[in-house]
Amino acid sequence: MKSPRRLAALSALVLVLVLAAPALAQACEVCFSGPPRVRTAFFNATIFMSLLPLGMIGWGLWWLRRQLRGRLAGEFEDRD
Amino acid sequence: MKQEPPISAAAVAGARTRRPFARSASIGMALFVFTEAMLFAGFISAFVIVQSNAPVGAWPPPGQPRLPVERTALNTVALLLSGVALFIAGRFFRASNAPKARVWMGLALALGSFFVVAQGMEWIALLRQGLTLTSSQLGSFFYLIIGTHALHAVAAIVALGWAWRELRAGRLTASRFGAVRMFWFFVVLVWPALYWQVYL
Q: How many structural domains does chain A have?
């Protein structure tokens, strides 16, 4: 179990990170300046470019899991 | 020192007959398709941002021809149908029905070739109307994005033609067919996204 002092330190660290995050985000050159249309385009492009590789990797892992599930079912039967 | 237990004959036989969980050709093609998908994603993102930077009502740029939306819609249908034809060919290939697989594969090849030829004719018309690589940002992005896709489509046609010939000779393996099919599906499925973003 964690001591109260350690818990307080951890909470303070999380609070600092949460408070600092918006300040870091505002350093983004294109997120808070320019016309709304351009900002929306940058925002959408950021989401698209972030989610596409993650989606493809996720699909790959799901496919791998599906392939391995059947193969590993009887893997150790002949060794017992 | 502890001695390892002897390996049973059954385990050795099992190891010899064990199949890999995925074919090397499929994994290689999947990695290639992954990188190509990111290439097109980068193109599309850049295009959307440049488009949003244009003043309201100034896209497409004044003095530049409008892209042929309706005719390209017909080409899009042909390309999508080629994907369906190859899907059906895959079903027949798995069922070891090579003659029918060859017919459907040939249909996919014909529809894909129609797409490339029709797109080429559109390009010639657009060039005559003044849309070139250096005439505007629309021209630059159009020839870059659609041209890159056309190169992929030509490569896919060559690959599918090779697979069709191999199938006719009775040499086409499931591994190679799977890799060619994956590439073709990528070319087919990426196109509607390009059409939506660039043409509409």
A: 1
